[in-house]
Amino acid sequence: MLVLALDTTTREGSCALARDGRVLREQGSDASKPQAARLPGDLARLLEQEGVTLAQIDVYAVSTGPGSFTGLRVGIATMQGLAFAAGKPLIGISALDALHEAVQVHVHSARAVQARVATWVDAWRGEIYAALYEDGIEVEPPALAHPGDLLPRLAGRRTMFIGDGAGTHADAIRAALGGDATIADPVAPLLAGTIARLATEAALGGALPPPDAIRPLYVRRPPSPSDGSGAPGSRRAV
Q: From 135, 218, 226, 234, which residue has the greatest number of CB atoms within 10 Å?
């Protein structure tokens, strides 16, 4: 099974090609150029370097977010177009799930693999998109929040932080949690390879959705206790 994957949730972004769950090549993009100006050129170069044609791709995969709205729309539209033209499935993978998985693969730290992982994506304006995982299970769903509102709840237990949001707010994390916090190294790994592997697992499990089934993952701000607007961190797909 040959999977072509794309991540456009960060300024740099990345694309990757994987065969049967093994990443053949993963490469970052030029963050100085807009996402729309890089695609589909980045994908074409990746395929050329591996001697693969679009006709050989079995499954397409793309990050569904959260992240830059413009980046998400460009990335999803690009992969939808390719998948539609080829009549192949398109699998969406959460960037937060990919970051959690990337801890096991990309992080090179003496204390890298820990039971609790906080995935933080920079949402700008001092905010982050965040989710929390314990023993491989998501225990706090994606939410838009200020780091200062989340950190007190994480005190008292070792936590690994990963994602560009963790890099942006590393000083605040260390100040609030001290030795209980570990910042991943690298803190913001490329994600397309991880997305390709997760998509392979999903496809082998029978998940082969058509391109028009994909939805971007936008994240609402957690409601205040008095507004009655639903569960914190609820997901909104449009």
A: 218
